[in-house]
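Structure Section — protein described below
Tokens — whole-number codes for backbone shape
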Amino acid sequence: MLLTLGVLAACAGCTADTRSSPAPRAAVTPKATAIAHSPPAVSKYFSPPSPYPGLTWQYQGHHADPDRDFDTIAGPHHCGTQSAAILMGPWPLGHGQPKSLRQYVRDPQHVVSPSSFSHGDRSLLPSDARPTGYSHKTLELWLAASDSDRYVYMVSGNDVEQWPRVRPPRLCA
């Protein structure tokens, strides 16, 4: 009650015009704020993995040739391995004469291979890991000379997955 009387007393000298018109305000210009967007995690590209023909890869900015390069596809549905992403192609990677066929797998549910599958940040990459030139949007394929017989690395921004090699290559477990 006292607060109401105090407000009324303070406005006793106000005219109708000043009470109904809001006081002028200074113009406020909103500041542009840059929002940094992180590249998506590697899992975004493979959860779930795409069936054949899989992702469309590029090699050094040009479409990769699926007959000479590699595919990343979901395991076959009839084998129950569709939750696994399989990278399969001629080895060595690139445009030389292939000597063999290799297969690496992203298999967090272990439907293709009991091999280890690792996920982490760039600290997972060996010191000699380098990009191969193969990419799909922000996703890059990396190899390390020290362990390319055992792993490939999928990198998107700071997110890294280590995919183990499956020997011998197979689609159905």
